[in-house]
Amino acid sequence: MMSPELALSVMTVPDAPFEARVTAAAAAGFDGIGLRPGDRTRAHEAGLSDADMQAMLRQGGLDVVEIDVISGWGATGEPLASAQRHEQRVFELADALGGRHVTVVGDVEGPPDRVASTFAGLCDRAAEHGLAVGLEYLPWTTVPDLPSARRIVEDAGRPNGGVVIDSWHHFRGGDDLGLLEDVPADLVAAVQVDDAGPRQDDIPLEEETMERELPGDGTFDLSGFLGALRHVLVDTPLCVEVISPRLGRMPTTKAVAMAAAATRSVLAASR
User: Fold this and answer.
1) Residue 100 and residue 80: Cα distance in Å, rounded?
2) Quick one: CA torsion of 150, 175, 66, 269, rounded to 10 degrees?
3) Secondary structure letter of residue 233 according to DSSP
4) What pTM was estimated for this model as a whole?
5) Which of 21, 55, 66, 204 is geometrically suited to a Cys-Cys bond with 16, CB 3.0 to 4.6 A?
């Protein structure tokens, strides 16, 4: 497999300060990073300007690839209004530091035409800031699998709308590699990779997802996963999202280096 562009997702080291995140990602050979609006706010509070942050990204040879996360976008009433207020912080981050896509998650309400219209509107607003919108399916929501996410994106019909395919959610959901082989490459905003041990039936998925493993340390068929997405990863970033308290307790540089090395190992095995 061709080596895809690697990005360090924000949730792999969620508490890392901006400078530490950038330094660690550059040292580990990542091409890009993920950010949240709060990361920019905390960097400002620590005395960094947007110009300082831009300079650090350039020095590290990094782009802002993904911005996390808008939830509630498919709701109604106050949850939707809250999501749209958060949107503005996402767009301010993208305007200041760049960004390829914003990830959106959560339950959606209403008939298909209302859902498609809501997603299309979000895509149109994001396009004004140079962002794509990646709809990530989560098995405990009303967008539980790839077909559900594809349907929304295709019904919306926006060129900057796509899906985010996360190995954790895919294997804990439909677990059908054939769906991955059939997804059009231009419909995928990003692929996220991570691993997990055997399913713990007594633990809700929403809790279990916060205890992930490094790629290759769990039971997922990541070789099959990445192989099925070979056609996608030619032009689509591979984002390493290992949500793990164990990694979170490590020094940032060590945790990021481990995540990079583990991902390159599974990529090599999938060739």
Assistant:
1) 23
2) -130
3) T
4) 0.96
5) 21
